[in-house]
Amino acid sequence: MSDFKVETKCLHSGYTPSKGEPCALPIYQSTTYKYDTTDEMGQLFDLKAEGYFYTRLQNPTNDAVAAKIADLEGGVAAILTSSGQAANFYAVFNICEAGDHVVAASTIYGGTFNLLAVTFKKLGIDCTFVDTDASPEEIAAAFRPNTKVLFAETIANPALVILDIEKFAKVAHEHEVPLIVDNTFATPVNCRPFEWGADIVTHSTTKYMDGHAVQVGGAIVDSGNFDWDACGHKYHGLTEPDESYHGVIYTKQFGKKAYITKATSQLMRDLGSIPSPTNCFLLNLGLETLPLRVERHCYNAQRIAEFLNAHEKVSHVNYAGLPDDKYYVLAQKYMNEGRTCGVISFELTGGREAAVRFMDSLKLATIATHVAASKTMILHPASHTHRQMNDEQLVEAGVSPGMIRLSVGIENVEDIIADIEQALKNDIKDNFKKSERTSEMITDITDHFQILPDFYFQVKRIFAIRFAT
Ligand code: PLP
Questions:
Q1: Which of 177, 131, 187 is nearest to 155 (CA)?
Q2: Measured from the CA of 385, which atom of ligand 1 is nearest?
Q3: pTM score, two decimals?
Q4: pLDDT tens sequence across 338-349
């Protein structure tokens, strides 16, 4: 399939029905697969023969979708996971262990930041965060002899910083370390990080790839370009015998597919996190229309970014499609036709209080912890996705307290603009009353159900902000 254009690959890669077979990708909703002899099944367990034996490891529906995503990214192999979080966890943990170190861009999704800064630390893996815009020398200074991975996002969520992929890839390779790039926001329609030197790509397929907000999923794609053997036994999990798998040496037996085979046969075996075949079927439906949707998301976002940029109540807009945006030049270089994604972040002149008031006044856009769905959604990162961070960490992640993240959908753009316009004109008094009423209601609910004091406190805190307006 690799000669086709992205639109064709989205429809045809991964699954080619033979005569009389279904045109739509079938859902193999089965845990297990039948064999005729003991030896046939034994060969599968030894990784000596290819075939399905248990869906936690492999499933035909999942594999077809993984193959499609691998083809879209231009990689040699891919594995699907039950969430984007699981994808990033596996992508790093597949080549890191206790005593190792990771360098990561600081402007990454809050969940990934927490995974690297907190959870990996508990596993004995340290992480140093670097400014995404830092010079190669500054990034290099964060490396240690035990650094195994450099990690970043193509378009950072929610800071919308565009990664200088070539800069990061160069530093990584000078230190004999692979560059892992989370390409969730750009999707392979707008950017293919392997073409710029990234070695491994991850995705939260929950976002644009699905596009309909119906499944949570993740993917890891390997370019097959990183030479694990050339680094001595730094990546010994890939280059030395795996005693938990009959002494297999992944790089010897699987060549360019070593990394993904290890992730499947070790991590999926031991940790699970396989997506359900039904979710993969849904993801595949989303992938079929990905290029059409991405184009529309980007068109709408560009129009809305221009509208916001010209509005007196808006103090700042982050969108790399705006010529005066700090990342415009990088977007022009790395993104297909300079298009980035449908997500915009912006600040109102009234700061945090005005942000909350504005969001509560929207009628079409939904307040939701989600981005990249076909419907327009909005979120306040400091109160929602990034609330676990302190002020210093928020600044490092490129998130200011008043920042609003708008995920522009594929509705008619005039309707979205009209909604934003009316919300920007909102009446302060009405919203004060609304907040007061909502606060009383929440207090009643929390008292009634005796919700945990911590949650009660958090709820009160959010509404305290509204009282101030
Ligand atoms: N990576 C990025 C860039 C994300 O935005 C997210 C979630 O928003 C994730 C990873 C985690 O994905 P999931 O929610 O599918 O676990």
A1: 187
A2: 8
A3: 0.90
A4: 999 999 999 999
